[in-house]
């Protein structure tokens, strides 16, 4: 975990433990620099991460303020572009790697990544948890022509830094698709539910700044756990 991520988690814990409410002011940047003994840029990155997650909002010239907390049991629907593995000891929402392989892309995956059928892709399987309850099962596919090497250590740590700093990729935007469907036999067995029970499927296609897709994610959510919040950072109109 990088220093700015640790600071963001510590500040979020501080907000929770002190029962801070929306509008409560946090220490100024200079105080945070002194407290955590890091550079200004590290604090700025931590605050940006918290702002993106809807934990704080920044008012230029006034300071850093707490944003209203999400309802209990709800998770952020919109993904960050961070591709990070979260530590379950410090976060209520986390994921675990349960499998990794190199496979030929099935038509659905090939179409999402703009590949020919059976092109080689990395596939990684995750189980996501929220407050120790299974939230969803996710399978992620990486275009092997773009990401030439992956292993479990990279996946389990900071893949975002690997993609940007080691491979030099410029991560751009993502497209999200949601649909309601019914569980198949494998999915029902995994969740301990019945065949044909409802489920929510969330698909995400991640693109480079050039517009080329490089990562495709498909997650199946337990219908009793599928509670989401979208925290927008700007409002153009009402």
Write the layout of secondary structure elements.
Blueprint: H1 3-17, H2 29-36, H3 40-52, E1 56-59, E2 63-66, E3 75-76, E4 93-104, H4 107-113, E5 120-130, E6 133-143, H5 152-156, H6 159-166, E7 171-182, H7 185-191, E8 198-208, E9 213-222, E10 228-229
Parallel strand pairs: 3-10
Antiparallel strand pairs: 1-2, 4-5, 5-6, 6-9, 7-8, 8-9
Helix pairs in contact: 1-3, 2-3
CATH architecture of the largest domain: 3-Layer(aba) Sandwich
| Secondary-structure element series | HHHEEEEHEEHHEHEEE
The CATH homologous superfamily name of the largest domain equals: Chorismate lyase-like
Task: Give the termini distance in whole angstroms.
Answer: 39 Å
Proportion of strand residues:
25-35%
The overall pLDDT average reads 87
Low-confidence blocks of residues: 81-90
Rg, rounded, reads 19 Å
**What general outline do the C-alpha atoms trace?**
globular
| Structural class estimated from helices and strands | alpha+beta
Portion of residues in helices?
A: 25-40%
What does the main sheet amount to? 6 strands, antiparallel
Domain module count: 2
| Major beta sheet, strand line-up | 4-5-6-9-8-7
Q: Quickly count the helices.
A: 7
Indicate the CATH class of the largest domain.
Alpha Beta
Number of strands: 10
Tell me the CATH topology of the largest domain: Chorismate lyase
């Amino acid at each position: 975990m990088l220093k700015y991520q640790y600071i963001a988690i510590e500040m979020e814990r501080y907000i929770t433990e002190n029962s801070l409410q929306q509008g409560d002011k946090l220490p100024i940047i200079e105080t945070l620099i002194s407290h955590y003994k890091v550079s200004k840029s590290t604090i700025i990155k931590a605050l940006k991460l918290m702002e993106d997650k809807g934990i704080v909002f920044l008012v230029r010239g006034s300071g850093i303020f707490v944003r209203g907390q999400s309802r209990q049991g709800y998770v952020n629907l919109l993904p960050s572009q961070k591709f990070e593995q979260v530590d379950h000891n410090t976060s209520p929402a986390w994921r675990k790697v349960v499998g990794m392989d190199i496979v030929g892309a099935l038509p659905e995956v090939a179409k999402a990544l703009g590949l020919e059928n059976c092109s080689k892709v990395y596939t990684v399987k995750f189980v996501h948890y929220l407050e120790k309850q299974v939230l969803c099962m996710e399978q992620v596919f990486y275009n092997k022509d773009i990401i030439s090497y992956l292993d479990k250590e990279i996946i389990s740590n900071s893949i975002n830094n690997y993609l940007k700093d080691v491979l030099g990729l410029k991560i751009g935007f993502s497209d999200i698709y949601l649909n309601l469907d019914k569980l198949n036999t494998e999915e029902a067995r995994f969740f301990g539910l019945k065949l044909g029970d409802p489920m929510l499927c969330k698909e995400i296609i991640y693109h480079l700044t050039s517009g080329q897709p490089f990562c495709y994610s498909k997650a199946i959510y337990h219908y009793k756990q599928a509670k989401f919040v979208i925290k927008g950072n700007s409002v153009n109109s009402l």
